[in-house]
Write a structure and sequence with these properties.
5-stranded mixed sheet, 3 domains, 363 residues, 8 helices, Immunoglobulin-like, Rossmann fold, 15 strands, alpha/beta, single chain
């Protein structure tokens, strides 16, 4: 009777962090309120009923925390620290409370329904030097220097000379007529960009696991695809390269905004976190995604399939003329670890993983 009374009547609330990244420590908070006027709570274990708390993302009960004593009318905050192994959108259902108070002979249980969605964003890792295309679009200082050297694409008008303008821009006839140096002004060059195209079809990999509580091979492959795409976007952002993300999904082509900051915008990371295995055996969705790439661009295609199919599509639709790289997480030689680890004699271009992460850019 005492043990049953101990767990009844308590109110729980869950606080989830603003952003959870796969493989990084996250803190979830459980707020426990004892609204009773006279009865305290003693020695109660509280934990999530089920969630992706297994060492490899298996569906298991969450870690438990002990509440030793909670006086009437008081609140307590229990902190659960956990590293989630894989990205995804996971439905949490609620909590289980258990106590052996007062004598330890019997265990009483109670369940509190508290549905919520836990969104785990893809892991962002440093990538090895050999991942990056040698011809990245010129942006930032490099693009401005290029404009100064080339003078843009097309003549637009004349303007007054500014310090630093190349002498060859000076229009001598107009300068002689006005008595002040006049220079030619040009239309700015088209902004070059890098496009990351994500192929969601896992190919022939099994889409169901023997154990329903574990991710399938297709799910694991798509996790690696999402991690690699997020890492590419972050690396391009650190290089000040304008980026686009195009996802060939079953629901159609998705192009969430990436944003100008080094860390991709939250909308792009959420889209990668929610990736589901696609069904595109003939590459029609992927073909449509590649057709969206226009103008001067560097193209990265991230896939879980054999790279040969993507290579054929690149050549067939004229994308072969673009600087392009197909990154497959399917083949044994080309795993995510291979892309994240530096080959002998090279150094990663990105900062190490423990570099403080900038704040997420919200849409």
């Amino acid at each position: 009777m005492l043990s049953e009374l101990d767990v009844k009547g308590l109110r729980l609330m869950r606080r989830l962090p603003a952003a959870v990244f796969a493989g990084e420590p996250a803190e979830l908070e459980i707020v426990v309120h004892n609204p009773r006027r006279l009865v305290p709570a003693w020695v109660i274990e509280i934990g999530e009923l089920e969630g992706p708390f297994g060492p490899e993302g298996e569906w298991t009960p969450g870690p438990r925390r002990m509440l030793a004593h909670l006086p009437p009318g008081e609140k307590a905050v229990l902190t659960v620290r956990h590293r989630f192994a894989r990205r995804g959108a996971f439905a949490l259902s609620g909590f289980e409370l258990r106590t052996r108070f007062p004598f330890g002979f019997f265990t009483k249980y109670a369940r509190a329904s508290l549905p919520a969605e836990l969104l785990v964003l893809p892991a962002i890792r440093p990538l090895a030097a050999h991942v990056w295309l040698e011809r990245l679009p010129a942006t930032g200082d490099r693009q401005r220097a290029g404009r100064r050297q080339r003078g843009g694409d097309e003549f637009r008008s004349l303007r007054d000379y500014r310090r630093g303008d190349p002498p060859r821009w000076i229009h001598w006839r107009s300068s002689a007529r006005t008595g002040a140096l006049q220079v030619r002004e040009f239309e700015p060059l088209r902004t070059e960009q890098a496009v990351v195209v994500v192929d969601t079809d896992p190919g022939p990999l099994p889409r169901r696991a023997r154990d329903p509580s574990t991710p399938s091979e297709a799910d694991r492959a798509l996790d690696r695809v999402a991690d690699l795409a997020a890492s590419l976007l972050a690396g391009l952002g650190r290089r000040e390269v304008p980026r686009r993300l195009v996802i060939a999904a079953n629901t159609g082509l998705l192009e969430p905004p990436v944003g100008p900051t080094a860390t991709p915008q939250l909308g792009a990371l959420e889209a990668l976190a929610r990736l589901a295995p696609g069904d595109d055996p003939h590459g029609e969705l992927l073909r449509s995604a590649l057709e969206r790439v226009r103008g001067p661009a560097a193209l990265y295609v991230v896939t879980a399939r054999e790279p040969g199919l993507v290579d054929r599509l690149l050549g067939r639709h004229g994308s072969g003329a673009l600087p392009a790289r197909v990154l497959s997480v399917r083949t044994e030689a080309d795993t995510t670890h291979h892309y994240a680890a530096s080959p002998p004699g090279t150094e990663p271009l990105d900062p190490p993983c423990d570099t403080p992460r900038p704040e997420l850019a919200t849409p």
